[in-house]
Amino acid sequence: MRRSLTCTTAAAAALALALSLLGQSPALAEDNRPPGRPETSTLTARGEACSTDPADPTLLNSTTLTLSGGISDPDAETVSQQVKAQFEWGLEGSEEPLGSSDSAYVSQAPGGPPVTHSITARDLPEEVLIGYRARGHDTRAWGEWSDRCWIEISTSKPAAPPTVTSDDYPADNRFHGAPGRSGDFTFDANGVDDAVAVYYSVDDNICTTRVELKEPGGEATVRITPQRSGPRSIHARSVDAYGNSSPCARVYEFWVAPHADPVAYFPLDEGGDSTAHDSMVRGRTAEGTGAIDWARGRAGTRGGTHRLEGASVVTSDGHLRTEGPVVDTSGAFTVTAWVRLDDTGEDAVAVSQDGEHVSGFQLGYDAHERRWAFRQTSADDVDAEFDRQVLSREAAETGAWTRLLATHDPAEDRIDLYVDGVHQGGADHASAWNAGGAFAIGGGTGQGGSVLGWPGAVDDVIVWERVLSDEALVDSSTGRSEVWEYANRPVVQEGVWLLDEYDGPAAADSTDHGLDATLHGDPATVWDATYSEIRFAPAVVLDGALAEHFRTDGAAVRTDRSFTASAEVRLDDGEADAVALSQSGEHTSGFALGYDADSRRWVFETASEDAGGGGGAHRVLSDTFAVTGRWVHILGVYDHTVGTLELYVDGQLAGTTTREGSWHADGDVVIGGAGHAGGVERAWTGALGLAQVHQGVALRQDITHIRFGRPPV
Length: 713
Prior knowledge:
It is a single chain. Strand 32 (about 445) and strand 33 form a beta hairpin. The longest helix is centred in the N-terminal third of the chain and has 20 residues, at about 1-20. The chain contains five helices and 52 strands. Strands 19, 20, 21, 22, 23, 24, 25, 26, 27, 28, 29, 30, 31 and 34 form a 14-stranded antiparallel beta sheet that branches. It holds the Pfam family Laminin_G_3. This is LamG domain-containing protein. InterPro entries: ConA-like_dom_sf (IPR013320), LamG-like (IPR006558), PTX3 (IPR042837). Keywords: Disulfide bond, Signal.
């Protein structure tokens, strides 16, 4: 009797030890509950979800599959449990499985979620219906089987890639369209009846963009936008419902025409007389009607008697008219002009083209809304109203050069307006008509034959017989969109101070603006005090403790438009903030280019508003530390169109940030400090040479020219 009790006790102890090693207690083993029935929502085959409908099985393209599922033991609510999964698979209608496999035991944590278990099923048959299921085991008992998940396997690849056709870009070895102009391309299954989709790519062989066919073996049409001119190609592959793919092959070649040149371009650089010449069509001119005058423009050429920005036509009491039309206004076209509005009292038209009774389009200003406007009518009638109109988001600004650009896209039945490169919106226009009359600069024909003028100046008028792209294109000298380029280019010198004088009261402005900068300091110690190691030219030295600086009488650039500021600098004191170049507002600088002592880096900043007390500013710091005693060229760029600040150091991009909002600091340019109406702050201690400000966005190809004082290309 004693021996029997001893054996029973030993057996119980051994069982307790075994259960302990398995993470279970003897008490729980006596009341064991088997694992729960697996939810089919947790079951997958090769990562594909379970389908419990044998009429709609999961289609796969491999005979080796990873089967996975979540197993949960109800006893794991309070204590960890060891559980494993068993997967079984077989043919539809057969009670005998084709195979089964168990996973390893895995511990399910107390209160934890179901544990995912996986096994590998190999050598599965093809093109037959297979069902798989799973159940769990907790070292003592099996749980219930899940419902069956149904799969079907095929590894047969489609015999051929798709074919492609396009009416917009036909494969006829001729040029069509243009970069940025979308076209329809139709993919056909090419006789592969079980093809359900195609993957394609343009100009490479990666075939990654998926397009669903309308029906198996059918076709699908997509819009593709070429990014380059010249020969282009499409690679594609067909894919069946199982995921089998034909090779990615070249299936289509087409030629994209270069951007079409403008059909009319009036630079308006004549600067005299009353005739403007079209640079695109020999002999076509726009003749003055009424009083015509000329002023400095926003864009132009350098040479001869032209100013650095060229001229512009002033049409307050007259306008320029061609003998006939320059564009079919019922078709695709783009028109753009630099405009300066001097009076907001009445509606005004900068550019238009006449119909018989009313202008076919008008680009200008709406006095009632006080906004820039692009408008057209639905018909050429005596009483026709401009019922198709797009207005700018913000009020029109007087006295500032603004780039207006408008498009008409008959393919989309739409007109759009851009102001300084920023899209303002669009409007539907499905009833365009062709205005066959004169093209007018500085005026237009309104309702009832009224004549509208332009109170201000117009410059650089260009017309295309196509829609300019507002998408960044690879096929571009700048890598930017066409709309961006015409808003931010050309880059124009507005103030250039060489700072190479030997004496005198001021630093001369090398442009024809005449913005000489008066010296506030000791001429004996400032002038010709050192040598710039960048251009090997004389340079000045300023004493920040005495707040020595140079100051113009008036602004050089519009700080609420795109601009570029740069200077050669040698910082001699790195313990305090210092500004090499700025333009003054009433209370703070509109921009400041210089050095930030806290970070010990170069900085380009623009104030959020014209407020004192060190209000908010947008700042970009260089990605390298500033070094005292060393000559460096620093350059800051504000891109108004995209709202960014960039900082370049010695011609290399050193930092970028975003900016919201803008305002114009209409005060003096200060060289050697951060200027405002009350004086100068953050004075520069060290040497300065060649300080410049440009209107427009300088890109990498411009910066070398700017560094050496030459006009950008």
